[in-house]
Amino acid sequence: xxxxxxxxDLNVIKSxxxxxxxxxxxxxxxxxxxxxxxLIEAIKAGKSLPIELKSxxxxxxxxxxxxxxxxxxxCGPTTSSRMDEFTPLLLAKGLKSMIxxxxxxxxxxxxxxKYKGVYxxxxxxxxxxxxRCVKKSKLIAYSDLGPEAILKLEVKDFPLIVAIDANGGxxxx
Length: 173
Hints:
This protein has a single domain (about 25-140, about 150-165), classed as fumarase (Alpha-Beta Barrel). The chain is built from 5 helices and 7 strands; from the N terminus they run βαβαβαβαβαββ. It has helices at about 10-15, 35-45, 85-90, 105-115, 125-130, and strands at about 1-5, 20-30, 55-60, 95-100, 120, 135-140, 150-165. A 5-stranded mixed beta barrel has the order 2-3-4-5-7. The two termini are about 25 Å apart.
């Protein structure tokens, strides 16, 4: 299985093909529905964002409460289509990589192809197992959202499948 590291540069993104299995190491950010809504509101208001979109990998995840002695609670993927209304603008503003589960809208697929991004899926129902790949976790923004706050995660060998590649190839086609 190929290993890749963040930040993902454009050459790496362009080399990925739908269906390819990978292990990702580096920094990723959690963000779900409400965090996406706040990011979009900030963009539309001309405010700065709590993360740099250009190099970010956003993981659609809302971790469970962290058990004592652990870095994070279970952290499985959220259904990605819930972020579809927000994703085209984030792609236009520089976002290149997302992790979640399930298919994406035609608008998001078009945006991924247009802006040369990549959409990964990871294994649903395995949140406790995926948590073992998280080596550090830090609150970055929107603490008022509880588990939907943006967290910065340092991951090691986080398992992914390329679901939609930069050329529009898709495991859902």
